[in-house]
Input
Amino acid sequence: MKNLLFLACVTSLLVICIYYDQKKQELHPGDITFTFFDADNDAFGIVAHVDIPSNTIVHFTDSEWNGNRFGFDENNLSWNTGGNKITAGTHINFTKLDTLPSVNIGFLKNKMKISKKEDAIFAYSGHTRMPSVFLAAAANSVNAYGTLINTGLQQGTSALLFSGEPTAEAR
Output
């Protein structure tokens, strides 16, 4: 009986440690920030503000958010960070999104066409079409988001507005 109780306690502690380790590795709003938004060339960049574990999946969409869900009229891009941890301060560039999507770290699934007139990109974790955590957003028009309600993102900090041509410093 003592052995069974001991085994149950050890198993419980192991499960708790695994759970908290996984929670610690989840990304949160502001853990990444958009560094540029280039609708002319269908490209954008982000910077990691925390270490991102290997094989983390981040989704991007240029669909508008209505406060509860995304529309179904735009594109979804999924980024797997690859087999190595990404260290805080690393810049990641996403290019040629409408033709031959590429990223300098990890790999991409799907394509994205960014509108020059009014578009936004949301970065999030969770399901492809339903975020569990919004990480960041960028837009070339404040109205392009749809809304930021229920995202936890704040205009000017975790949701950035880019206008005009991207500068070399932003890349």
The first helix runs from residue 2 to 25. The two ends are 63 Å apart (CA to CA). The first strand starts at residue 32 and ends at 38. Helices lie at 2-25.
